[in-house]
Amino acid sequence: MPFATIRKTAPAGAPPARLPDYAAACRDFDWQRARAQLDGLPGGALNIAHEAVDRHVAAGRGGKLALRWIGKDERVRDISYAELAALTGRFANVLAGLGVQRGERVFSLLGRVPALYVAALGTLKAGAVFSPLFSAFGPEPVQARMGIGEGRVLVTTEAFYRRKVAPIRDRLPRLAHVLLVGGANLDAVGAGGLPADCLDFDAAMQAASPRFPTAATAPEEMALLHFTSGTTGKPKGAIHVHEAVLAHHVTGQYALDLGPEDIFWCTADPGWVTGTSYGIIAPLTNGASMIVDEAEFDAERWYRILERERVSVWYTAPTAIRMLMKIGAGIVRGFDLSRLRFMASVGEPLNPEAVAWSADAFGKPFHDNWWQTETGGIMIANYATMDIKPGSMGRPLPGIEAGIVARGVDGRIAEITAPMAMGELALRPGWPSMFRGYLNEPERYAKCFADGWYLTGDLAMRDGDGYYWFVGRADDVIKSAGHLIGPFEVESALMEHKAVAEVGVIGKPDPTAGEAVKAFVVLKAGHEPSEAMRKELLGHARQRLGPAIAPREIDFRANLPKTRSGKIMRRLLKARELGLPEGDLSTLESDER
Ligand code: ATP
Ligand code: MG
After folding, report:
1. Ligand having the closest approach to the CA of 231
2. Which residues contact 401 (CB under 8 A, 6 or more apart)?
3. Which ligand has the nearest atom to the CA of 586?
4. Are strands 65-70 and 289-293 parallel, antiparallel or unpaired?
5. CA neighbor of 16 nearest in space, from 383, 394, 355
6. Separation of 476 CA from ligand 1 center, angstroms?
7. How far apart are CA 80 and CA 294, in angstroms?
8. CA of 74 to the centre of ligand 1 (A)
9. Which domains, ranges and CATH numbers included, belong to the chain?
């Protein structure tokens, strides 16, 4: 059953959306002009931390809530913009006191605790480069990333240090200082194994002045080092500059409909790019109040937070939405979510079934949007005022030129304009948050660009209305009996079956078809794997997709291998199916085969 377009009509009394007229905005948008929304610093300098924090204080908005932190035990800590300015000033002074220079890398390995946010913005204030690591990484992934990034300072906890850093410390020759958050047992220096360069974060902060003149960084100076999710292979270190803040700011308004009156909750961990671009920077530059929850996913807790904190804009990911769907819509209706105005999703394709489910369960749909670590900010989105075609990623942001491209017979990359023709999704370089390199991998970076396009590595189609439809990663697309099959289409069809909670689809070598489609299915509670269920799902898929595209085989799994950011790792499903090497597993969440 195809999914009906969700028409947008603003409810009576609703505040005007920040992108009331998409076509007009696309026509009139100009990055140069948008820059007037930022302060900048004297002499043409630009610093993310100033735009996110200090300028609000200077404008008399220091008393406003910047961040409400909710601890695992539901303890709450509120931090105003003024307090955040002071804390980040202290941290910048701590770094200066340690002799950290402009452009040197400061890593964090922390859960979602206030110190993480202070370290991020304080590092930027000091003119150093911030690189967040996901706290669940073990020693090897930590070593690999800090090695590439040549981390000079690490902010972590004593427990993480002992478990994850001490075993690889001798392989981090550039690491000069470790700041331990939350009570370090420094008395044990020497005896207990904590080296003398481990310092107590809290004591260092206490001793530092809250005043720090924000570094007058040039817009093109490196600000952030983000590692990709590792879905397709070894993670790459994407370089972002201070200028990126312009894109964070504008896309926050346009794609997330975010403004100063909003209470915003981005559920992503700052260890991934979403958790920094939209979990720290965009809400603050836009003067919103943001919620940070230390705990991991828990449906009831999430609904409770949405209700109690009166969250108005919520940004999450398909993996979480699928878990909410698995639990069912009944529970949603037990909460008062009337404050929730806008819901968005990123990170993986959002199945049309999930959009339809949310429209039913919440009375408003999730808005899918697309971007990558490399793009630094949202590039294609469904907007508050634009009709949603479930299953589509939406349309390019004002100021972003996207295209569907392919290599022609002359060997050059050129745009394909026919509606719904499949090709590689490409973007015209030049937007502010575009990555400026993969650290230490200039050739790999250069390969991403050809004939005036940035090539994303994703395959997509564009319909006659200019909406983009995700097909799959170039690596995941299946070639079967002359058809190119995107795993997303097959997965979405299976997701429509009431027994299905999650699906990953791969191509398996086949002597006649080239590749045959195979699906790995996780069932919802109350449904058991059986031959009858397999037949039913195969029949359902064949009816929905036709025999050429429907899976030939279905296996049942208790769960699917995923990255720690929640993305299904199809390459791993495939490697295991075919008995091939599993490749880089540094971002694999522990899974059950
Ligand atoms: P790696 O590059 O290391 O293999 P990754 O590509 O998963 O990992 P990210 O930069 O975190 O790392 O993810 C970006 C990718 O996620 C996109 O290229 C795309 O494949 C996928 N993605 C993100 N948002 C969407 C979306 N809305 N629809 C479909 N795919 C999406
Ligand atoms: Mg990628």
Report:
1. 1
2. 427, 428
3. 1
4. parallel
5. 383
6. 12
7. 18
8. 32
9. 1-37+243-402 (3.40.50.12780), 41-65+73-242 (3.40.50.12780), 476-578 (3.30.300.30)
- State whether the beta carbon of 380 lies less than 6 angstroms from ligand 1: no
**Tokens representing 233?**
């292979």
CA–CA distances in Å: residue 525 to residues 200, 327, 505 = 46, 9, 21
Alpha carbons 122 and 118: distance in angstroms, whole number: 6
CA–centroid distance, 501 to ligand 2, in Å, is 25
373 lines ligand 1 (CB under 6 A): yes
Both structure tokens of 488: 């997303």
How far is the centre of ligand 1, averaged over its atoms, from the C-alpha of 537 (Å)? 28
Q: Best mutation site among 234, 273, 371 for ligand 1, i.e. most ligand atoms within 8 A of its Cβ? A: 371
Burial of 448 (0-12, 13-18, 19+ CB in 10 A): middle
- Whether 349 is in the pocket of ligand 1, judged by its Cβ within 6 Å, is yes
C-alpha 461/C-alpha 405 separation (Å) is 10
Nearest Cα neighbor of 165 from 145, 182, 149, 148 is 145
- Nearest alpha-carbon partner for 85 in 113, 128, 121, 47: 121
Cα–ligand 2 centroid distance for 371 (angstroms): 9
Per-residue DSSP letter, 496: T
Q: Is 229 in the pocket of ligand 1 (CB under 6 A)?
A: yes
Q: At what angle do helices 114-125 and 81-97 cross, to 10 degrees?
A: 60
How does pLDDT run along the chain (593 residues), one tens digit per residue?
579 999 998 777 777 889 999 999 999 999 999 999 999 999 999 999 999 999 999 999 999 999 999 999 999 999 999 999 999 999 999 999 999 999 999 999 999 999 999 999 999 999 999 999 999 888 988 999 999 999 999 999 999 999 999 999 999 999 999 999 997 666 655 445 577 789 999 999 999 999 999 999 999 999 999 999 888 888 899 999 999 999 999 999 999 999 999 999 999 999 999 999 999 999 999 999 999 999 999 999 999 999 999 999 999 999 999 999 999 999 999 999 999 999 999 999 999 999 999 999 999 999 999 999 999 999 999 999 999 999 999 999 999 999 999 999 999 999 999 999 999 999 999 999 999 999 999 999 999 999 999 999 999 999 999 999 999 999 899 998 888 899 999 999 999 999 999 999 999 999 888 899 999 999 999 999 999 999 999 999 999 998 889 999 999 999 999 998 889 999 999 999 999 989 888 889 865 44
Cβ-Cβ contacts under 8 Å for 355 (sequence gap 6 or more): 3, 6, 365, 366, 368, 388, 390, 391
3-state secondary structure at position 24: helix
- φ and ψ of 366, to 5 deg: -75, 140
Ligand number nearest CA of 226 is: 1
Q: Which residues contact 349 (CB under 8 A, 6 or more apart)?
A: 318, 368, 391, 393, 470, 488, 491, 492
Q: 393 in ligand 1 pocket by Cβ < 6 Å?
A: yes
